[in-house]
Amino acid sequence: MQRERIKKLLDINIPIVQAGMVWCSGWRLASAVSNAGGLGLIGAGSMHPETLQTHIKKCKNATSKPFGVNVPLLYPEIDMIMKILVEEQVKIVFTSAGNPSLWTGFLKDKGVTVIHVVSSSKFAKKSEQAGVDAVVAEGFEAGGHNGREETTTLCLVPMVCDAVSIPVIAAGGIGSGSAMLAVEALGAEGVQVGTRFAASTESSAHELFKGKITQLNEGDTALSMKQLTPVRLVKNEFYQKITKAEWQGATKDELQAMLGKGRAKKGIFEGDLEEGELEIGQVAASVKEIKPAAAILHEIWNDYKMIKGRLCMP
User: Fold this and answer.
1) Which residues pair with 94 in a beta bridge?
2) Residue 82 sits in the same domain as residue 200
3) Do 244 and 156 share a domain, yes or no?
């Protein structure tokens, strides 16, 4: 993998980033991935500012290795979040769900490495123009909030690589060394993995949700709520209700009322598998076991090296 730029940029040994997933990516998971040689991310999207600050402090105590924070830019308390990131001297920030030009300059002025998540080559170009250090090209297969374009990772990654000169990290449907090798062939210099780490021992998700991940089969997730913010969900009772409402022409306000507040927390963190919003990627169908984060990271990395070596043999 053309990975030296990413390894140098993030100061890591293995070019695998653990995604900053809501209700899954606390300090335990982030520190475990960083200690194993990758880059762990704390997911700020499900945290109040004071909660995020606590997780950052605990992560610092749990690892001497680099780690980062993922920040959705549409976060309602974004000013406070940015203040905490600077106060706590967080060195790596992954931004998503918003305009990178709003905060990239501020963070860069404080010496922070900034990487933005994109779902199209158009937004990759805008991110580069905004001054980010790298982008994550996240395909349609990914769990959680997703691009409206529904572009798959296989199509998205090479287009983004052609569109920008900064490093590209591939995401969406990546849960194995073979997938990592595939996106290398497309031009990616590293990968971001979410779903497999959501089902890790250190994930802060509810054990019922982790167990549900291991039971999913092909076709058990779908992109939903496209009128609001597209999100890939498990097809549970809540999904069926929201999909039926969309088919019947529900307005954005009606759909928002059905979604309410705390729906993802209800499902992922509290373990309500029917009425919760269960965000997970398509690759969940291949996850059959809950493992420690370090074991997951090294399995992907060793698999990647083994397959690459075999393919390079005469």
Assistant:
1) 70, 115
2) yes
3) no
